[in-house]
Amino acid sequence: MTDIHPLLPQDAAAVAAMRQAASPHKGEVLGPEARPIFDAMLAATSPAAGIRIEPATVGGIEGFWLRPDTARPAARMLYLHGGGYMLGSARAFASFAGQIATRNGADTFVPDYQLAPEHPFPAAIDDVLAAYRGLVADGAERIVVAGDSAGGGLTLALLSILADERKRGTLQPVAAAVMSPWTDLALTGASFETRAEADPIFTRGTLQAFADAYLQGQAATDPRASPLYARLGGLPPIRIDVGEDEVLLDDSVRYADRARAAGVDVTLAVWNGMPHVFQSSLDRLLAAEQSLNAIGRFLHQRLIAAADSPTRLDA
Q: Which of 5, 89, 95, 149 is catalytic?
């Protein structure tokens, strides 16, 4: 199913102002020196009410627990932050991830996976896999996974790795939700041309620099780095939210098409006029709130359904 959401009149002025503010910086190539600025931007997301934030280590990976007051026993969310594999931190994304955690009612672990260029591929996906296995070892019975941008790519790569381990009895996630996922580090999507002017933030060059720093000569089509090229059969239900005004639009559209062809239950929501990971602008955009509410409902419903199911989802 594909949902097309029109640009809301209430959001038009805010989007125009955001575009004007971002335009002088469009196409800038960022390095590790941008980490404090990026973290400050994400940390400005309004925190959700009723969330406790606790430093923790899961599966040997440091990060933070986000614990909603209404959390249900044995239900967990693994949230994977974005930042082009070079930027971002679990603490900076705590408020943003907490907005999803409070909407689905699951204790949420946000891992501080290792960042490039100091720790190139496959360090990030190896850390994410370790964190997931740590959740299982700690007694999680129902797990959902969510992420944005590069974290969305990690989410989808993780799903395929876990699906390949199904026959070994690995507990499978019951659902996943991703926002503007980066699924193709080879940068072959047509939207790099068709949405080049519309995207207020990224250019092909910006993303190429991120990809080069992360891959450091390894294949961009490795499915652990680019889940568009992974085997997609046997994955849990997935929700994908993406802005129409972003060069990564086709990373979502093509992944959704391939996953559906493999028999996966995929909901693709395309938000007209919206930029990359617009959900982080919760205080400015009504579409951000609507998208987060839909993501929260989707994950909540899957966790409830899994709790009511008489069969194990890893069978």
A: 149
